[in-house]
């Protein structure tokens, strides 16, 4: 659940804090129950947030996450998302769900700052903060956890009821939770800086980012959400800097993808184009032409940046489909979700649905973007008029984001399709998914 710490930058006021849902209450939740809660959280996120589904941006953020996680000992399957929201914010959810607002990505000066925020949120998850708060204040925390879980599960039906449940849980014993949450923030800073440096990022980036924000909005009556949800004090910044000075790190080269990601994000969300670099400006011209297709003139520039995304957009702009070009790119980048998903989109436009099934089905469950993979597989089966396979693919798509009831509807649709009985392999897969859904639904009711 979104951590909402209400505070002014550099203020010594004592705010009311909502605890991170970074990890489940180990006194109440097992690892299996955390997975159940994580899926429920993901369903609520998809229902209530404007999640950006752009393959390039998602691939970029998840690559940063993977680089950080190589230096974290964890069994959790972390998932990273971008939410279309101008506010500068990020949050962690149960099971390792990390979300960044688009406003934060646009505000960052370099990739190190993006990685710093992500490392901080990862450590909220890894340090078991919810369970530790429970141990310090069992009476208040029990009610809070029940309220947050209830709010999570009913939030999509009644946001007002969800907010009431959350605030009702928080109101009890708030002072005790306040002190611990400040400890949580300090610990997430300290351990996050270690991960940041180990991954080859500047360990000063965390304090740099928060200090820049705090200074920029010091006299602003409306501080960005990042400062409200992660209260900044002079002591916290000085502690972070002291920690960073103690750590040696080997700076790794970046592709400077952030500038390209910011240019792409501006074009996608309809924000004023601000790129002054000729190559970035050229890329944005291609972006806008690609988004508008027949309603925009072809770009007159040719000085695109040397980057994978430039290769992708040039292939997207080609007509007819450059089959050899896409195949060559997917051979070079077989594990790049942006290449695979964009290639599949072009195949669908060319009505080459059989190739989409062959391309995506074997790898769909290997990626964080399972929802996007299975949606395209369903579109491909739809083009082939295979109702049973389309319904099964949509059931897989819905189940990947925790929409269990919608997945059940698609399973029922697959069972009723006349051609389903002719495909033994599909029937077996459908039955396995159906049994999994029943187990998940039962477990969710028992939370």
Fold and architecture overview:
The structure is a single chain. The chain folds into three domains: 31-245, no CATH class; 258-303, no CATH class; 304-445, Serine Threonine Protein Phosphatase 5, Tetratricopeptide repeat (Alpha Horseshoe). Helix content is 62%, strand content 3%. The protein contains 21 helices and three strands. The chain is globular.
**Overall geometry:** globular
Helix content: 55-70%
Unreliable spans are: 1-28, 137-180
- Could you give a short account of the major beta sheet? 3 strands, mixed
Q: Output the structural class.
A: mainly alpha
Number of strands: 3
Strand order, largest beta sheet = 1-3-2
Mean pLDDT, all residues? 78
Number of separate domains: 3
Q: Compute the number of helices.
A: 21
Backbone CA Rg: 23 Å
Q: Which H/E pattern describes the elements?
A: HHEEEHHHHHHHHHHHHHHHHHHH
Report strand %.
Answer: under 5%
Q: How far is the first residue's CA from the last residue's CA?
A: 15 Å
Which labels suit this protein?
447 residues; mainly alpha; Serine Threonine Protein Phosphatase 5, Tetratricopeptide repeat; 3 domains; 3-stranded mixed beta sheet; 21 helices; 3 strands; globular; disordered N terminus
